[in-house]
Write a sequence for this structure.
């Protein structure tokens, strides 16, 4: 089974390629390397013994996508490519709408022309905005508070309309909660450029001595200890969620929507403690004012994915922290440039 993986060199895409190959499928990767490095390919080969086909190019380039689809007998597309930094999206909304919304439309046009009818899209729990209650179910109202979130919601809406007009298509929207962790080998992980936006890479850079302390964005939320609570999910569990979606829904016409989370929330300070425990080093932190736009707590009700995709997250918070630490120690500066 040949799967076109857009953004397959990135954090979630690379882990998904490893799981696809291990399950006997063949990823065809398309990536413009905007936020990833070519050396990821060698790591995929190191971990699986298979070097996937890689096309360097942009999903907004229709002629390029037509060529990739003409050269490969693709059955399904998993679409990770896009921009993902909330703060940056406020500064550069045009780039976010162009990459995330326009890019997806070009991709679907190319799929329609090539008669590829199966698409899995990387959506986000951000589409639930500030939820009225937790855990969050798929039928909760959606909203967005920043251009990144709005771009994800726009794509969800576009794909819903496209599905109405072309009901023979199988379109799956996977709403990820907070992906963290690394491949257990320590050879593949998250490699943010510059200052990390997200909690886990920041903690691990403090633990390894690259940064002095973690800024904790507020300790006066109505949560267990006053700090923000999120549903952290191991990236390999998340990757496996895509395989489950492919296997159980990829060939079934319809619009399918699933939360991919664990169903459990951890606070910022609980994550700091778990990481200190796994790494055996103290993680220094300082409480600073709340980050604008943050919500108090957010975790998934993952029942629908469990019932319909026969998938649930298996890896623990200890796995998430220990695997991140192994990756950080083995690769203190991330992937090599070549
Ligand atoms: P990432 O930045 O590591 O990977 C995205 C990849 O897409 C990168 O390799 C980048 O070079 C590539 N890319 C970007 N624009 C492209 C374009 N126009 N053409 C071709 N390639 C392009 O991000 P990630 O964390 O792996 O996230 C993957 C997807 O999951 C994104 O769509 C993101 O919005 C979504 N998501 C991520 C999170 C998270 O916390 N990581 C949470 C929810 C949803
Ligand atoms: N946090 C800190 N200090 C930091 C970074 C984060 O205290 O340096 C806190 C945040 O305030 C929040 C928690 O750690 O309470 C998690 O923050 P992240 O930035 O790691 O994750 P978010 O939940 O804010 O957002 C992430 C992705 C979004 C995605 C969302 C839901 O960054 O793209 O999950 O999927 F939309």
């Amino acid at each position: 089974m040949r799967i076109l993986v857009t953004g397959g060199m990135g954090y979630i895409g690379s882990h998904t390629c490893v799981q696809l190959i291990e399950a006997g499928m063949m990823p065809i990767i398309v990536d413009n390397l905007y936020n990833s490095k070519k050396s990821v390919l060698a790591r995929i080969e190191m971990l699986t013994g298979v070097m996937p086909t890689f096309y360097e190019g942009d999903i907004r380039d229709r002629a390029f996508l037509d060529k990739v689809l003409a050269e490969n007998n693709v059955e399904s597309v998993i679409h990770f490519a896009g921009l993902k930094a909330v703060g940056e999206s406020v500064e550069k909304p045009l780039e976010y709408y162009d990459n995330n919304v326009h890019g997806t439309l070009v991709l679907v046009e190319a799929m329609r022309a090539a008669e590829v009818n199966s698409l899995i899209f990387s959506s986000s729990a951000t589409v639930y905005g500030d939820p009225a209650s937790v855990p969050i179910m798929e039928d909760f109202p959606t909203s967005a508070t920043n251009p990144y979130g709005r771009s994800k919601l726009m794509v969800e809406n576009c794909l819903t309309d496209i599905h109405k007009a072309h009901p023979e298509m199988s379109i799956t929207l996977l709403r990820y909660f907070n992906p963290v962790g690394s491949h257990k080998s320590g050879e593949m992980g998250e490699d943010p450029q510059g200052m990390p936006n997200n909690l886990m890479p920041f903690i691990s850079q403090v633990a390894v001595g690259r940064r002095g302390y973690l800024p904790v964005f507020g300790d006066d939320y109505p949560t267990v200890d006053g700090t923000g609570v999120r549903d952290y999910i191991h990236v390999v569990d998340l990757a496996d969620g895509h395989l489950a979606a492919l296997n159980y829904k990829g060939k079934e016409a319809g619009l399918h929507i699933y939360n991919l989370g664990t169903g459990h929330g951890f606070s910022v300070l609980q994550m700091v403690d778990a990481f200190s425990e796994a790494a055996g080093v103290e993680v220094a932190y300082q409480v600073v004012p709340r980050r604008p736009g943050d919500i108090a707590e957010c975790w998934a009700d993952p029942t629908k994915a469990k019932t319909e995709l026969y998938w649930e997250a298996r890896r623990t918070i200890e796995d998430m922290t220990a695997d991140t630490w192994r990756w950080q120690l083995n690769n203190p500066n991330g992937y090599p440039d070549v």
